[in-house]
Design brief:
Length: 341
C-alpha cells in the first residue's frame, strides 16, 4: 500500500503568464506558495478475489475490468503512462475541487508519486511536475498553464519562471518573522462557487493577441512583488496593495474571470479594511484571498460573514510519500474474472 500527501497552492502574482502560448514568446513567471491543505492518494494492488480488476474511489465510484473503461481521464492516462494495472485507488482532499487551488494538478502529482512508489521507484520533484504537465496538457489536451503542477510537486514559497518550454524554481528567501507576518495577514474565504478552470482559461486565451499587454503588465508585477517580499525595510502592506493591482489586471483578461456578485464581494472586503485581494486560480469562483492587517481582521470577517473562512498556514513539504509498504504484484491468470463484473 502507498499513501501520498500533496499540498494545494495559492498563486499571488503572474497567473496566466505560465501558459506556453505566452511564455514561449515573452517569458513567464509566478509567485506562489503551498499551504497546509492537502490531497491524499491511497493505492494498492487489488486482491484477486473480486469480479473486477480495478476499483477507483473519488467523488464517484468506478469498478472496471479494463483500463479503457475508466471514465476518469486523469486516472486512466496516469495508469497508462506507468503501466499500472489491477489497483484500488482512493482520493481524498481537504478542500473541494474546481475552486482555483490547482486541485486537478495536485491530484495528478500525488497520483504519479504513488504510482512510481508502487513500482518501487523514487521520482524527483522535477520529474513529477514534468509528468503531470505532460499528462494534463499534452495527452489530455486540457487548457491551462504549468504553475499548478510545479507548485504542488516542490512545495513552499517560490518564484517559478517559464521560458522556452521549460521551468525553473527559486525559493523566495525571507526572514521567518516576515514570512509569519505575511501568513498572518492573509485571509482565505470560500465563495461556494465551483467551476472548470480549463473553460475559463480557454475563454481568456481565445484571442491571445488581445491579452498580451495585460499579461505583460502582470508579469512585471512578479518582479515588484519579489522586491517587496525580500526588502525587510518595505512594509508588507505594499504586497497587499499590489494584489489589488494584479486583480484589476486579471479582471480585464476574460469575461468569465469575474461577475457582478464577485465584484460586489471584493468591494465589500476593501471597504472593510482589506488592502487588496484576488480570486485564486483562473477566476469565476472558488476562493477569495485578501491581504488585511491584523487589527482589521474582525471587521473583514464580519463584512464577509456570508462566506466560509478557511484558516491556513504556509507549508514547505511539497509532494510526499507518507506510507510505503510495497507489494509483490502478480497479474491475474483467470481471464474469466476480467470479463465479468
Amino acid at each position: 500500500m502507498i499513501i501520498t500527501k500533496t499540498p494545494f497552492r495559492m498563486s499571488f502574482f503572474g497567473g496566466g503568464t505560465d501558459m506556453p502560448a505566452f511564455f514561449n514568446e515573452h517569458g513567464g513567471a509566478v509567485i506562489s506558495t503551498t499551504f497546509d491543505k492537502y490531497c491524499y492518494v491511497n493505492v494498492r494492488h487489488m486482491p484477486p478475489f473480486h469480479p473486477y480488476i480495478s476499483e477507483l474511489v473519488y467523488n464517484r465510484f468506478e469498478r472496471v475490468n479494463n483500463i479503457e473503461d475508466i471514465e476518469h481521464p486523469l486516472i486512466r492516462e496516469c495508469m497508462r503512462l506507468h503501466d499500472i494495472h489491477e489497483i484500488r485507488l482512493t482520493y481524498e482532499g481537504d478542500l473541494p475541487a474546481r475552486t482555483g487551488l490547482g486541485t486537478s494538478s495536485t491530484f495528478a502529482v500525488g497520483m504519479l508519486n504513488a504510482f512510481c512508489a508502487l513500482k518501487g521507484r523514487r521520482i524527483s520533484y522535477r520529474q513529477l511536475a514534468q509528468e503531470a504537465i505532460h499528462v494534463e496538457r499534452d495527452v489530455l489536451q486540457e487548457h491551462g498553464g504549468w504553475q499548478d503542477q510545479v507548485a504542488a510537486a516542490y512545495g513552499g514559497l517560490n518564484r517559478i519562471d517559464f521560458k522556452d518550454g521549460d521551468f525553473t524554481v527559486r525559493p523566495i528567501v525571507i526572514s521567518p518573522e516576515r514570512k509569519y507576518e505575511l501568513d498572518e495577514n492573509l485571509l482565505l474565504f470560500y465563495t461556494g462557487i465551483q467551476r472548470l478552470s480549463s473553460e475559463i482559461q480557454a475563454d481568456t486565451f481565445a484571442k491571445p493577441i488581445d491579452k498580451t499587454q495585460q499579461l505583460l503588465d502582470m508579469l512585471q508585477l512578479v518582479d515588484e512583488a519579489e522586491k517587496i517580499l525580500c526588502d525587510e525595510n518595505t512594509s508588507l502592506s505594499e504586497f497587499g496593495k499590489l494584489l489589488d493591482t494584479t486583480w484589476k489586471l486579471k479582471r480585464g483578461t476574460g469575461a468569465k474571470v469575474s461577475n457582478g456578485n464577485i465584484d460586489e464581494l471584493y468591494d465589500i472586503a476593501i471597504k472593510a479594511g482589506a488592502l487588496g485581494g484576488k480570486l485564486l486560480g483562473a477566476g469565476g469562483g472558488g476562493f477569495f484571498l485578501f491581504y488585511c492587517e491584523k487589527e482589521k481582521h474582525s471587521a473583514l470577517v464580519n463584512a464577509m460573514n456570508k462566506l466560509m473562512i478557511v484558516p491556513f498556514k504556509f507549508e514547505t513539504g511539497g509532494a510526499q510519500v507518507l506510507y510505503y509498504a510495497p507489494q509483490v504484484y502478480s497479474p491475474r491468470k483467470d481471464a474469466s474474472l476480467r470479463d465479468s463484473i
